[in-house]
Amino acid sequence: MNISIKAWIVSLSVIFYLLALGGCTTYPLLSTQGEQVPHDYLIGPGDTLNIIVWRNPEISMSVPVRPDGKITTPLVEDLPASGKTSTELARNIEETLSKYLQQPVVTVVITGFVGPFSEQIRVIGEAAQPQALPYRENMSLMDVMIAVGGLTDFAAGNRARIIRNVDGEQQQFRVRLEDLIRDGDISANVPVYQGDVLVIPESFF
């Protein structure tokens, strides 16, 4: 074989090796042991709220939270709702209605759940249906993968990683999606938290 051809093949092999190394950045493996901090559900744009004003059915109604995070009901215009608990919003509505009613009593029931964008689980890359998912209590990696329809044929599942905000600092952790989905290794089913981003890279080969 011509020496120049051999050199070209060697150079090409080195390039592929370096690309593979660059795509295999090592992050700590995310543990199945995670402490979920108790957290009240926060209202987000797209949620549906059933607002009940005691003894005042004419101003009780179901309303959506607008994209700007506000709601509008009779006697209550453009009230911020996003980022609040249902109890906090109920007290805010009572305060506004007290200008028109004597000692109003309000209950807010959330009937459609989306949640704030900052608390959604985002899945990007080689998932069958990449999307943002509402967080649910005790949500796990398996729950996320069921929701997005699993991996594509081109996914490098065991090189996937979760980007997570830990004490105000962004950290990355490796997860084993292929072991979980294709091999049924339940030890790879780790908890996910509010605001996690799951990145699923494409396989080189």
Automatic annotation (TrEMBL):
Pfam families: Poly_export, SLBB. The keyword Signal applies. It comes from the Bacteria. Keywords: Signal. It comes from Nitrosomonas europaea (strain ATCC 19718 / CIP 103999 / KCTC 2705 / NBRC 14298). Residues 121-172 form the Soluble ligand binding domain. This is Putative polysaccharide export protein, outer membrane. Signal peptide: none annotated. Residues 36-110 form the Polysaccharide export protein N-terminal domain. One of its GO terms (molecular function) is polysaccharide transmembrane transporter activity.
